[in-house]
Write a structure and sequence with these properties.
- With 230 residues, the chain is of the alpha/beta class.
- It has one domain: Alanine racemase (TIM Barrel, Alpha-Beta Barrel).
- Strands 7-6-5-4-3-2-1-8 form an 8-stranded parallel β-sheet.
- The structure holds pyridoxal-5'-phosphate (PLP).
- Pyridoxal-5'-phosphate (PLP) binds next to β8 and α9.
């Protein structure tokens, strides 16, 4: 099932790139494997998938130990400061930085481990109360403060769009995040680049690609529905 789903998603990514006049190589597919067993990840790995997303630090640590070393693990979930030391050095990219305090903790841990840590700033473009992330208005100030942390490397922005029936309803959200990243890039802030735009999930990744996503995070579309009761 995973193999067939992956090739369907791949086909849709290609078509969205074609529609948008973009090269397929500009978009990285992150297979969101949270709650899913190692066997499913191995199947995806077997057909060439290397980028996987998880939202819990413990799950990244466990799976990283059990699975091939060349997998790139993306931390896409809300990160608590007391878990930062476990994930720094394990995740290739932390997508969910939404406060200066969290960034400072990451920087501190990065110094301890003598590492540079690539991160994205999570923006709550839709201003949903249930979601983490800074508002679009707060983003530039946060980026400017974070840019002073030498071991934290800001690579771009991430958003979780609302759940909607019609993915077209999220087009404006994706457009806003893209525009914000263009505005920030134009400021030429030292130690900041805006090459990554992490947006789009199973329901709306094609629209996100049309609007400039460079990373899409697809879970259900690859691994099927999640069961949180277990
Ligand atoms: C779970 C999750 C996804 C994947 O969601 P699907 O709708 O299953 O594709 C993407 N991004 C984040 C941050 C998630 O937590």
């Amino acid at each position: 099932m995973v193999t067939e789903n992956l090739s369907k998603v791949e086909e849709k990514i290609k078509e969205a790139c074609r529609r948008a006049g973009r090269d397929r190589s500009e978009v990285t597919l992150i297979a969101v494997s949270k709650t899913k067993p190692e066997a499913m990840i191995e199947e995806a790995y077997g057909v060439g998938q290397r980028d996987f997303g998880e939202n819990k630090v413990q799950e990244i640590c466990r799976k990283k130990d059990l699975l091939p070393e060349d997998i790139r693990w993306h931390m896409i979930g809300h990160l608590q400061r007391n878990k930062v030391h476990q994930v720094v050095g394990k995740a290739c990219l932390i997508h969910s930085v939404d406060s200066l305090r969290l960034a400072q903790t990451i920087s501190h841990e990065a110094e301890k481990q003598d590492l540079d840590v690539p991160v994205l700033v999570e923006v709550n473009v839709a201003r949903e109360e249930s979601k983490f992330g800074v508002t679009t208005e707060e983003t530039i100030a946060l980026v400017e403060e974070m840019s002073k942390l030498p071991r934290v490397q800001i690579r771009g922005l991430m958003t979780i769009a609302p759940f909607v029936e019609d993915p077209e309803d999220n087009r404006e959200i994706f457009r806003k995040l893209k525009q914000l990243s263009v505005d920030i890039a134009a400021k030429n802030i030292n130690n900041v680049n805006m090459s990554v735009l992490s947006m789009g999930m199973t329901n709306d990744y094609e629209v996100a690609i049309e609007e400039g996503a460079t990373m899409v995070r697809v879970g259900t579309g690859i691994f099927g529905e999640r069961d949180y009761t277990k």
